[in-house]
Amino acid sequence: MHKHTRFILFLTFALCGHSLAVDIIKPKVVIITMYEIGEYTDDAPGEFQFWVERENLDKVISFEMGPHDLRMNDQGLMGICTGAGVTNSAIVIAALGLDPRFDFSQTYFIVSGIAGGDPQDISIGGAAWARWVVDGDMTRSIDSREAPEDWPYGLFPSDGLRPNDRSDGYTFPNMSFQLNPGLVQWAYDISKDVALTEHPEVISVRELYKGSPAAIAPPKVILGESLGSNAYWHGEILNEWANDWVKLYTGGEGNFVMTNVEDNGTLRALYRLADTGYLDKDRILVLRSASNFTHPPKGETAVWTLTAPYPVNGLTALESCYRVPAPVVHALLDGWETYAETPPSETPSW
Prior knowledge:
Layout: H1 3-15, E1 29-33, H2 49-54, E2 59-61, E3 70-72, E4 77-81, H3 86-98, E5 108-117, E6 127-129, E7 132-135, E8 140-141, E9 155-156, E10 176-178, H4 181-191, H5 200-206, H6 213-216, E11 221-223, E12 225-228, H7 236-248, E13 256-260, H8 263-275, E14 284-293, H9 302-307, H10 315-323, H11 326-334, H12 336-339
Parallel strand pairs: 1-4, 1-5, 5-14, 6-11, 7-12, 12-13
Antiparallel strand pairs: 2-3, 3-4, 5-13, 6-14, 7-10, 8-9
């Protein structure tokens, strides 16, 4: 952070009623979660609870700009819960990055949350490290019922005149965010063999997807892209759009695996903070675990998928949201003498 900016923010913070006698906190790793149910411990878990309980995030730091207080432990791990949705995630992460009590210049940020998974790529409870995060909100659209007969759906880019056409017009900036390939590969290598949980209820849902080998297989850790969109969509037509959209905005490199309603807001805030010197964009990771499928099995409708309850209330996915990133977090903390200065990196396998 620029020291003059920090001074101005620090003074502003003080004038708003906060004490100046506060040491700057330098988190080593920040886990970003999006929702919690009830309390932080000892009840039905959301994305935040396992981190609070299992990593002893017992230090409470008030955070008036978010829906939840921050949590931290003595090892330098901080946890934040932004609230669901693109707007919440963007505002809360921006507020965190600008908070003068913290220095995030060497901090690693790891998004960890549940998502809808494409059954062509992943099983319920499986987890994917994103190489790209793509914004699915900045679209032009018409109702598909009014679309020309040769259109696959009614969504198309701002710089095009039909689906999958970017030949003309204005394009929104920052439609996709490519994460540090070496860091993503390093995180994947550490976590790819983590044991993920199974449950009979999940298995019974997977068995409905007989035409999708990835869906009926036991859950595992893979590499695959995250598409963020405030619209909570389902169905084969929009799943086709998601796959096309991710390829369109990654130059054909990305493969859509996970859909969610926060990552585009979170990444937009983190990258804006990085561009202005508050943090390092090469220290960002995104992990999503499939709590449900994005389209129905053969013989069922999109409404069936949309209204079906998450198997086991998403518990296997919530477990994966902790189990998969946890060894990555510990490796960063244990190797801090090295990783404080230089992010870990492995040669990408893709």
